[in-house]
Structure prediction request, 181 residues.
Amino acid sequence: MKIISWNINGYRSAEKTNSIKDLIDKNSPDIICLQEIKMNEEVLENFGYNCYYNFADKKGYSGTMVLTKDKPVKVISKIGLDKFDEEGRFLLLEYKNFFLINIYIPHGGRKKENHPYKFAAIDKLLELIKTLNKPVFICTDFNIAHKEADVKNYKTNYKNNMFSYEERAKIDELLNLGLAG
Prediction:
């Protein structure tokens, strides 16, 4: 099975440049998870895939989308964190043999002012994963660089948003559940 995850930063702009069609033509993925779709209406061209959306209440903001060849058994679009759910940042698709989570974790803010929100979302994800009884695939933009190799000039970035010790520890918590990085 081939799964592609992409923070698309605006579905419509990628659609205009045929980026999505090119991705599909070159890779023929079984599942495509898109984060930050920034739209509030279903697409006209689904490229032969089943499409599942979670739009943000605010137009042109956030949102997630999954395109899949096989229909899931169940689709859930709420994780149980009000602001997060209003921003359309979560989709869980249950299949016969696995779960697929497409999640878009919020940016922590330049001065880390949104870290409590970011950590609350990750904690909800951790809680959820612990309840699932099949293998789990997570497609995401965590807005966190986990390893030193992921950041240029890592020595000067340890205290910065997206590479702080606290954020990296949250990724460690996920990995400690048995998830592969």
